[in-house]
Write a structure and sequence with these properties.
single chain; nine-stranded mixed beta sheet; alpha/beta; 28 helices; about 850 residues
Length: about 850
């Protein structure tokens, strides 16, 4: 009968779920012919139960239920009925009361059990499951005691009431219910206090990672055989490896009757949620699963319900046990699940154990390769270091190097928080990937070195090209979405992928992957932040004397490369979809935003051309040689015949052309040398327009403005806040001088002071003197106004330069040494406010 149905919310809060359950139960009673005004009393007495640790919330829940009952029975308040909702109480102080001494031996034993069970009740709440016998006898004994001693002190009366509350909450905690339903509290193990952590470790070992999962485990004991267990929780229990044992416990004891899986923000919170209906001790039932994304909502409500989309399915939960890790991957087809039986583990075709290097101090032991001298890789003193990086397939993202000198290796071995990569993995080529991404998973060829936890790497891979293509395919992405649809791809997820090796397709796959690696490498090596950068692409694709024509040829080249890579990836997808028999589930199409090489982009590429020109001015690059020419050691001026490097390694950047060797003058010379004199002005116009000059500016003014305002910001960003060109800059930028880290010596700051800063002060002083003489003559009003404004400006500039001179003079006298092995972050700080902020 309806009176037999019991519903418990063990974390009822202010009672929302119980109020909803009241409405549903009322309809059930009415269908069974009960009188409307009798139903509220029956529901409150027999059907609804709640537990809570917050006293105020429990009061609100009781109030909400009573008000709901009053809608159908206006006389409910006169009937002396109270909801079965208890705010769980602690037991402190009961044993010290006089009342305790009045109890018989058995009553004291039960009281002691209650006291021990609930000493930390406000911390543990309804996850407690105390086993205390003879509560009925004890209740009778307390009633007799209350009747016999009507003159009990108020304190003892209060403790008598508290004991009765402990008995009542024990009964609710021990009882089993037809339906247990809640939105449990969420709390990760890192935020738990010591007492809670210890209790969960002993009592809920498989679910202790988060409090919501602990509640799910506790609800097992609260639910009757064949009863229902219903929760709204985070989605993490469905997929994460830390909940694998917990998932198995659920799949062994329940069928999932229904599950509504909601994407990030659907519930107004930044993580996915799961509304799950489990039926206890009934296995093999096909449940109904639906996925709700923001696109499925209108005014925060599903446009249709159930939500029928690609993930809508009816499947038995027993299927999930066939997938490695047993994720609740309800959208996985039987066809794909079969591939886990047909294929073999990645471990069988590679050495992939999850071993990785950990320095415990990346600031000290990891550098961008450009921070160090050019000979960094000699004698294996530093190794290239795979650390993940942005979403990029087939090749790239290798900009880091890790200290591999004996002293560093000794630290990695001795330090407790370090992890020295197993020697068999040193220098091994393989396949690396980024473990955390919001766009999808991308695997790349790695030519060898070391790798850390953010860039796990498969080494000694049989049929390496085949595996690289397969891991970058939609088939692997489909697998990753099944075993772990989060932003973090774990080693175990890659290991779980079933490799099906079709030898008849090896040649086709190898050809396509080789092409993809070459295209991706060409793209990566076209810019300075690649170790193998040789020459700027505008010079590689130059045909005649126009920069615009060179860019157009580069643009055509990148477009062909882009479309070829896209076509290759789609062909690989077709091949692997066919091998896995997933034609009905997956499409080979690759969206343009998922092609991970760069198309030409005028502003970015012209700015990179300017950066290359600065590199040639400093001697880092040379028009006479490919690749990196100078990054430490002995500087050889003879290697720069076509375009000479700055003799003193300093480039002034000022608002006017005060010096013949300032950066704008030298850049104009660079364009003249590389593209010729005939189209010089046209080329400067094109360059200035590309970088966003103001309409009022001439081409040279636009280029100067870029050097003054944006060049260094761009350089710092591109070089990951580890710049190789350093900007000595006064407070508001009246004085700027760029130096090259690798050409710095102890006298560089002194030369900046004497050759440029003092010289600029002298020139401004001379200009000021001339303007003051001019004011002594008869001037038109407008001319006089301009002259006075310029004098005011010079006065401000001179004050700023004098203040900056104090800083520079002090640094020049220090003759600071740099140790390039310390890296940019450490060395940059030595110059304090004299350098522009990173």
């Amino acid at each position: 009968t309806p009176e037999d149905i019991t519903v418990m919310d063990p974390a009822c809060g202010s009672g929302h779920i119980l109020v909803y359950a009241f409405d549903l139960l009322e309809k059930i009673y009415l269908e069974q012919g009960y009188l409307a005004n009798e139903i509220p009393t029956l529901i409150l007495k027999h059907n609804l139960f709640g537990l809570e640790i917050d006293d105020r919330a429990a009061q609100l829940a009781s109030f909400a239920l009573m008000m709901q009952a009053r809608k159908s029975d206006p006389n409910i308040f006169r009937k002396g009925i109270l909801p079965n909702i208890i705010s769980i109480q602690e037991s402190a102080g009961i044993k010290e009361s006089f009342l305790y001494t009045r109890l018989d031996k058995e009553s004291k034993r039960i009281t002691d059990d209650l006291i021990n069970a609930y000493k930390d009740a406000k911390n543990l709440g309804s996850i407690l499951n105390p086993e205390i016998s003879n509560l009925d006898v004890f209740t009778q004994r307390l009633a007799v005691l209350k009747e016999q001693d009507r003159g009990l002190a108020e304190h003892d009366k209060d403790n008598l009431l508290r004991l009765q509350t402990l008995i009542d909450q024990t009964r609710l905690l021990n009882k089993k219910y037809d339906v247990v339903v809640t939105n449990p509290p969420y709390m990760g193990s890192r935020n738990m206090n010591a007492s809670l952590t210890e209790y969960l470790r002993d009592t809920y070992p498989t679910s202790r990672r988060d409090l919501f999962a602990v509640f799910m485990a506790r609800m097992h004991d609260l639910t009757k055989s064949y009863g229902y267990h219903v929760t709204v929780t985070m989605q993490s229990w469905m997929f994460l490896s830390s909940f694998e044992k917990f998932r198995l416990e659920i799949l062994e004891n329940y069928s999932i009757v229904g599950l509504t899986h909601m994407a990030n923000m659907v519930m107004g919170i930044a993580f996915g949620t799961s509304a799950t209906i489990l039926r206890k001790n009934v296995l093999g039932i096909k449940g109904t699963y639906q996925y709700v994304d923001l696109d499925d909502l209108q005014d925060n409500t599903p446009i249709e319900f159930p939500v029928i989309n690609k993930r809508y399915s009816t499947v038995a939960a027993t299927n999930f046990r066939a997938i490695p890790g047993s994720p609740i991957a309800y959208w996985a087809s039987e066809k794909f699940i079969e591939s886990y039986e047909r294929g073999f583990s990645v471990e069988k075709i590679s050495d992939f154990t999850g071993s990785r290097h950990k320095t415990a101090n990346n600031q000290k032991y990891v550098r961008c390769f450009w921070e160090l001298k050019a000979d960094i890789l000699q004698n294996n003193q530093w190794l290239f270091y795979a650390k993940g990086g942005s979403y990029r397939k087939y090749y790239g993202n290798i900009i880091d190097v890790v200290d591999w000198r004996p002293s560093a290796l000794g630290f990695y071995k001795r330090n407790k928080t370090s992890n020295l990569l197993d020697k068999k993995y040193w220098h091994q080529e393989g396949i690396t990937y980024t473990d955390i991404t919001s766009r999808g998973y991308s695997f790349r060829y790695f030519r060898g070195g070391a790798f850390d936890m953010s860039g796990p790497t498969l080494v000694k891979v049989e049929n390496q090209n085949y595996i690289l293509g397969l891991l970058n395919s939609v088939v692997f992405q489909h697998h990753a979405d099944i075993v772990n649809p989060t932003f973090h791809l774990q080693v175990r997820d890659v290991k779980a992928f079933p490799v099906i090796l079709d030898k008849s397709r090896l040649e086709d796959v190898d050809r396509l992957v080789e092409s993809n690696v070459l295209i991706s490498r060409t793209d990566w090596d076209s810019f300075e932040t690649s170790w193998d950068f040789k020459r700027h692409p505008l010079l590689v694709h130059k045909d005649g004397g126009l920069v615009e024509a060179a860019f157009k040829r580069w643009e055509d080249f990148t477009e062909r490369q882009f479309m070829q890579l896209k076509a290759n990836e789609e062909e690989l997808n077709r091949i692997f979809i066919e091998i896995y028999g997933l034609e009905d589930e997956l499409t080979p199409d690759v969206a343009e935003e998922d092609v991970t090489i760069r198309r030409a982009e005028r502003e970015r590429d012209i700015k990179s051309f300017i950066s290359y020109a600065v590199g040639c001015m400093f001697g880092r690059y040379s028009l006479d040689e490919e690749g990196l020419v100078y990054a430490g050691g002995e500087f050889e001026p003879d290697r720069y015949r076509s375009f000479k490097a700055a003799e003193n390694g300093i480039l002034p950047i000022l608002d006017k052309e005060y010096f013949e060797d300032d950066i704008v003058s030298r850049f104009v010379d660079f364009v003249r040398v590389t593209f010729g004199e005939e189209f010089l002005e046209e080329n400067l116009e094109y360059i200035a327009d590309s970088i966003g000059r103001r309409k009022a500016d001439s081409a040279r003014e636009g280029i100067r403005r870029y050097f003054l305002r944006d060049f260094y910001k761009d350089h710092v960003r591109i070089y990951k806040k580890r710049p190789i060109y350093w900007l000595f800059r006064s407070a508001s930028g009246v004085f700027n001088a760029l130096v090259y880290l690798h050409r710095y010596d102890r006298d560089t700051v002194g030369r900046i002071r004497t050759d440029y800063l003092l010289e600029l002060q002298d020139r401004l002083a001379a200009e000021e003197s001339g303007l003051r003489r001019l004011l002594g003559t008869e001037l038109a009003r407008q001319e006089e106004t301009r002259t006075r404004r310029r004098l005011e400006e010079i006065d401000k500039q001179m004050k700023e330069l004098q203040e900056y001179h104090g800083e520079i003079h002090s640094l020049a006298n220090e003759r600071i040494d740099l140790d390039l092995d310390d890296g940019v972050a450490v060395n940059y700080k030595k110059f304090g406010k004299a350098l522009a902020r990173l």
